[in-house]
Amino acid sequence: MTTQEIADKYYELACQNKYVEIQDEYYGDNVISVEPEHAALKGMQIVTKGKPAVVAKGVAFRELREELHSQSCSEPLVGGDFFSVILKRDITFKNKSRVQLEEIGIFQVSEGKIILEQFFY
Question: N or C: where does the chain have the smaller number of CB atoms within 10 Å of the terminal CB?
Answer without folding.
Answer: C
